Amino acid sequence: MEHPKKTIIIGAGISGLTCAYCLRQWNLPVLVLEASNRPGGLISTTRRDGFLFESGPQSPRFNELLWKLIGELNLEREFIRGDPKAKRYIVKNGHLCKAPFSPSDLITTCLFGLRSKLRILGEPLGLSHPPAKEETVADFVLRKFGQETLDYLVDPIVATVFFGDAQKMGMESAFPALVRWERESGSLARGAIAARRRSSRERLMRGTNSRSLGQRVTDSLPALGSFRQGMGVLTDALGEKLGENIRLAAEVVSIMQVAGNGERPGSWRVRLRGGEEFAAENLVMAVPSYTAARLLDSAAPHISSLLGEIPHTPMAVVSAAYDRSTMLYQLDGFGFMVPRREGLITFCTIWNSSLFKGRAPEGKVLMTSFVQASGESDPSVFPDDVLARMVGAETEKILGATGRLVDRQVWKYPRALPQYNLGHAEKIAAIRNALNGFPNLYLAGNYLDGRSIGECAQTGLHAAELIRSHFRG
Ligand SMILES: Cc1cc2nc3c(=O)[nH]c(=O)nc-3n(C[C@H](O)[C@H](O)[C@H](O)COP(=O)(O)OP(=O)(O)OC[C@H]3O[C@@H](n4cnc5c(N)ncnc54)[C@H](O)[C@@H]3O)c2cc1C
Fold it and tell me: Which of 413, 433, 457 is the last residue of a domain?
């Protein structure tokens, strides 16, 4: 049994690691229990024969908090910046069209016709308001821009960035800022400009009020990037910093709230597979929502049932290496996205070796495809070689690849990411409300405030701050 005046964090993904790291920085005792034999959760890098495969984020966006961690962990030299202007493509009728992310690209794009272009370009001149009841992303886009824009712009972006379905995702749940902009300014573009002005003003105020804040490195740092040796560098470094405060291969099978024995009422007891038990004053659940739901089943049944309702998409990730000489396309850019209408199982392919040096040996290319369910089927049930063959056939058609695979790596996720579907925001508000009845129970993870690693880290920091104030209070 451990000293009770500490915090136990279940899960060593970026959310749990950030929480633990912050608590250690503040000299608060912590123990992280992680089921697998490495830290990182969905972030994991495999290096083999000169290739660098990523199981999760390939070139994520780094927010201010992640930059702070990179600085404190001395990883700046390891960081490699992504090119924010790298070309993205969208597949139409089996061919690559440049994604229109600038007004000039929008005018010339082959993805949709004049009517759709005019509706997008004319948006700042119009006046619209979101309906009182939350609408789906698809309904929002249809209302503002029409079917073509939904099919050939928003649907592939939503699938790529959120692994989501625009027909199910809720605007308020997934894009609260857009709803706010439209509500406040009657137009997305006008709302975005007003928000940008507000935040520049705030930055300026902070800069003039404090000399140190004026030096915020994050203002000039790149948003997209990775590390020379892959994304695992960040989570490995966080894990190393925790030293003996992290236990790997420690799967938590049950938790309960206990009282007495010198512990403060309401402290937590956690049991591992194998029977070992730990007690702590605070408990942070930094596991996926469905695992948190299972573990909280008897201790917090209401929270458990709300968490259990959050859906996750199944998906697979196929990284494939080819000889460069067998590619007809140059792979000049970030990669391509595939609209659902195209009827492929690949919904996005990232050209890793074009994004960053050192992802593949000389003369080879590496690309990573994300595979979605076709209809209701789950791609993660297919054997690895079948998946690789199916994706390979699509890649060959789109990119004109003629050669054989040189190497490949497949990951399967029966429950990849939480879906911010209609009603998600309300569910999270209800969970937060129910947490008031458990003053020493905290949640962190990708179902709360966004799925990106920066947003996950932020939930970890937030839990740590609440714990610090709990001890101070
Ligand atoms: C294929 C893919 C691509 C992605 N691409 C991007 C991207 O480009 N940019 C971006 O920002 N984000 C991306 N994401 C999302 C991002 O990686 C995740 O949202 C984030 O890493 C989740 O971190 P987490 O700590 O909340 O959860 P997880 O990483 O899921 O960590 C939870 C941890 O809890 C552990 N655990 C579970 N059960 C138990 C138990 N009973 N006892 C002990 N430990 C347990 C798990 O082993 C795991 O280590 C991607 C995700 C995937 C799957």
Answer: 413
